[in-house]
Amino acid sequence: MADKRCFVQFPHPGGEHGPITGSRWHRPPPNHRRKFMQLRGQWIDENSAKQPGDLWAWGEWEPESDILRTFNPAGEGSGHPRRLRKPYYVPKSDQEYSKLHNTDPFIFGEHFLYSNCRQKSGLKRLAKGSIIAFGSGKEINGQPAWTLDTVMVVKDFIDYAPCRAREELNGWASDTFLEVCGGPFSASPESDRLRLYRGATPGDSVDGMFSFFPAVPAGGATGFPRPRINLRDKYFNPRSLRNVKGLRDERSCGELRDLWESFVKQVRDAGLVLGTYAELPERRIE
What we know:
Helices cover 12% and strands 30% of the residues. By secondary structure, the protein is of the alpha+beta class. The radius of gyration is 18 Å and the shape is globular.
């Protein structure tokens, strides 16, 4: 099967971690969840200027984290976070790693990374310039809605065996990724083959597009709900809770650029900035 340049709606539903599940490394069988985190990084503001500093954002981080503060959200179902967390991790033995969740997508470090989640057939054949929109289907005010946590623009990729991820991806991914994700992969079957995608950045974009996560500069009385995204049914299904959409159709560069710009506008219209970089979480030894 040939690689295709696609626009992919990728539902990875997950509510906010509770006070206990989010503080320790999350274990299956409960599904993956999200955290509202304080990150040291960079963002692009409403004037398209790059800004450094602390920012708040939603994301997946299944290892440990500290609770920095709690919020009183505006009612059940508002989508506002209850807790602000600072991510970190404690390395484990191979036996322990086999019982833990990995983190995917991985928004920390020089490039965003997408490595394994639900990778079958078409998700292993995306070409450079493809867009993957990670988010969750929800019901807001009785209507189906789709909320966004990460936009990834594919810059490059490498195929690998997950059971040998720490060897085969050395040099392609950070040491943190190789521990946090490569460790849990170590028990995968020998026959498995996956693809590690790296995201485009503002300094190394694809057709002017780069990966980002909705964010705000750190501070304020409360967090923010993940922004609601509306696109034509041709591209997006707001009722999609699990099914990936967009793998059958190859898209032109201009079409993908228009879709990316629509995401940028809708995120900014929600009063948010484009988070483009987050420092790697701290490694702790206990």
